[in-house]
Amino acid sequence: MAMKTVVIISGSGSNLQALIDRANEIGIEISGVISNREEAFGLQRAQRAGITTALVDHRQFESRETFDAALSETIDGMQAQLVILAGFMRILTPEFTRRYEGRMLNIHPSLLPKYRGLHTHRRALEAGDEWHGATVHFVTEELDGGATIIQAPVAVSSADSEETLAAKVHAVEHRIYPLAAQWFAEGRLRLEQGVAYLDNAPLPVEGYQYHD
Ligand code: GRF
User: Fold this and answer.
1) pLDDT band at residue 144, thresholds of 50, 70 and 90?
2) Is the Cβ–Cβ distance between 170 and 79 less than 8 Å?
3) Is the confidence at residue 92, as pLDDT, over 90?
4) Stretch 76-105: mean pLDDT
5) What span, in angstroms and rounded, lies between the C-alpha atoms of 22 and 37?
């Protein structure tokens, strides 16, 4: 049985697209896509694939707590077993993250713990880093801070701009996010006391290192 998965987005949804394209193969069924922004292109991608969509617009709520409560209600209404944050640009309350702990994943465009937060490509370039990349991790209360599952390093070249680097990172994101979702759907991946386990063995803190 495919694992019922809800994907939450705020924007373009190219990671969502990668998951849609490979859903059958990796054993997930995307039972819904939720966005906090009406204009998110990812909503169109979902609709095109015949997936139920929902808009939970944060501007219509008085507080993070009431927004997160509405978000949980929508997620639970879609019977999610796995929750995937894919370019979702809101900070979540501790209550929300605790509710989905161990079954909520995020992808971040840096080699965490480097460059939590925004503008990661610019920051990697400004620092003169030789390596940049993307990280899939379990979501916990700490922003971009839960146990790492997979990291994909990307070599930075002297010719890279923020845009070219972002494109390289996106390309690896589209490989590692479906892979992490597949491991989870197959029951091979779990979070236990803050540590990510793959096939019953703890993953290293920097996660499984993905190479093409
Ligand atoms: C990705 O770079 C992801 O790492 C970050 O937001 C971006 C989302 O891109 N969290 P997309 O909407 O999936 O194209």
Assistant:
1) confident
2) no
3) yes
4) 97
5) 25
The response to whether residue 154 sits with its C-beta less than 6 Å from ligand 1 reads no
Length of the chain: 212
Strand order in the sheet with 189-192: 189-192, 195-198, 201-202
Q: Are strands 195-198 and 201-202 parallel, antiparallel or unpaired?
A: antiparallel
From the CB of 35, is ligand 1 less than 6 Å away?
Answer: no
Domain chopping of the chain, boundaries: 1-100, 107-212
- What is the set of active-site residues? 108
Fold of 107-212: Rossmann fold (3.40.50)
Distance 12 CA to ligand 1 centre (A): 8
Output the six-digit token pair for 162.
């923020």
Q: How many angstroms is it from 87 CA to the middle of ligand 1?
A: 4
Q: Per the omega criterion (within 30 degrees of 0), is the bond before 94 cis?
A: no
Which architecture characterizes domain 1-100 according to CATH?
A: 3-Layer(aba) Sandwich (3.40)
Please state, in angstroms and as integers, the Cα–Cα distance from residue 61 to each residue in 33, 57, 64, 100, 137, following that order: 20, 8, 7, 21, 28
Reduced to 3 states (helix: H, G, I; strand: E, B; else coil), residue 149 is strand
108 lines ligand 1 (CB under 6 A): yes
